[in-house]
Fold this protein.
Amino acid sequence: MGDNVRIDDYVILKGKIYIGSNVHISCFCNLSGGSGITLKDFSGISSHTSIFSAVEDFISPTLMSPSIDRKYSKIIDGPVVFEEGAKLGSHCIVLPGITIGKHSTATAQTLINKDVKDFAVIGPKVRGFKTFGFRDKKAINDIKSHYLDEKN
């Protein structure tokens, strides 16, 4: 951890996290650094923001829980890097494998699912959600049965 770092109350830091100097992490943020998170100098994160360097695949037919063997799940992972001066507004979500460019900013409630160019200002394109499809119910039930059979 660098110099002049401020981490507010109720922040969760877990995994591999590098924090440079002059960094602020506001209250109620979650940094889940299973595959690494780097916050370079002068970067900042506003309240209620979540940064994930590993997530479970919610579409593939898997069982999703950190409490069971990984052979029953599929993990999407990659390091997250905040370049110097990168800042996020409140309630942003950063997915694995993302680099946020130098002195770029994201407005509140932005889902960051691809790299952000240096000095860019980004924000959410639409509000709401879209259904992309449905998970394979039979395959998931088969995996669950196999898992439960192995446990018994």
Q: What stands out?
A: Helices lie at 137-151. The mean pLDDT is 91. The chain has one domain: 6-151.
